[in-house]
Design goal:
Helix content: 25-40%
Structural class: alpha/beta
Low-confidence stretches: none
Shape: globular
Number of domains: 1
CATH class: Alpha Beta
Radius of gyration: 17 Å
Order of helices and strands: EEEHEHEHEHEHEHHEHHEH
Number of helices: 10
CATH superfamily: Dihydropteroate synthase-like
Mean pLDDT: 87
Length: 259
């Protein structure tokens, strides 16, 4: 049965504006790293990364998420200096050329602060503000992280907080499936929910493709189910396909075209 659409849709506020959550948005992933699990090395050169960042915006993403350090299990950590060396030319190259907000995927406060100075509007801290310095920085800006209650306790406004359950980060297949099946409980907390299932290994365990490049169909299936379960933003590598899938999913759920 089509869902009723609220007359006053929720918003996700960020440093340079807000995202109206009247549809399922797509966050396009840009990894400026040599070792990320999905596209490591492909966009390490600044020119290639800038080109892909502009392409992600053109493909219909609502947010560009840029990272300079891999967070895959077993990946080697890099210094803040090296991470910023990778990110700086890319942020310089895309910040003034795209209309969508930029999210910086980092766990280092000094990198986050520099990125905000280069035009980033969202901080995506996969550690959930485990570093007190990051928490203090975020309290002065906007962010994406897991710890909504801790964030509000230090003065970050409710509408600036999005929750990502962290599919794939140190979790078993069963853990991931439980999270996806129970997204409605996370959505009930009242914050925007961001879900990243793109090309994750649990898809292979479900028969969705052993090789990374064969997991598009499985990624879209999981993303569609996540949207139906309450996700507001889908973090994805295959932006064009995911945007189209979310348009169809929203159209079916809401009982109207979403072009």
């Amino acid at each position: 049965m089509p869902q009723n659409v609220s007359r006053s849709p929720r918003v996700w506020r960020h440093r340079s504006g807000e995202i109206v959550l009247d549809r399922t948005h797509v966050m396009g992933v840009l990894n400026v790293t040599p070792d990320s699990f999905s596209d490591g090395g492909r966009y390490l050169a600044p020119e290639a990364a800038i080109s892909r960042g502009l392409e992600i915006a053109e493909e219909g993403a609502s947010i560009l998420d840029v990272g300079g350090e891999s967070t895959r299990p077993g990946s080697a950590s890099v210094s803040a200096e090296e991470e910023w060396r990778r990110l700086d030319p890319v942020l310089r190259g895309v910040a003034r050329k795209i209309a969508i907000p930029i999210s910086i995927d980092t766990r280092k406060p000094d990198v986050a602060e520099k990125a905000l100075g280069r035009g980033a509007a969202i901080i995506n801290d996969v550690t959930g503000l485990s570093d007190p310095t990051m928490a203090r920085l975020v309290s002065k800006a906007r962010f994406l992280a897991d710890r909504a209650k801790e964030a509000m306790a230090i003065g970050i406004e409710r509408e600036a907080i999005a929750i990502d359950p962290g599919i794939g980060f140190g979790k078993t297949v069963d853990h991931n499936l439980d999270l996806l099946r129970n997204l409605d409980g996370i959505a009930a907390l009242g914050h925007p929910v961001v879900v990243g299932v793109s090309r994750k290994s649990f898809i292979a365990h479900l028969g969705g493709g052993e090789r990374m490049e064969d997991r598009l169909a499985g990624s879209l299936a999981a993303a569609t189910l996540a949207a139906a379960g309450g996700a507001d933003v889908i973090r994805a590598h295959d932006v064009t396909e995911t945007v189209r899938a979310m348009r169809v999913a929203d159209g079916v759920r809401r009982g109207r075209a979403n072009l």
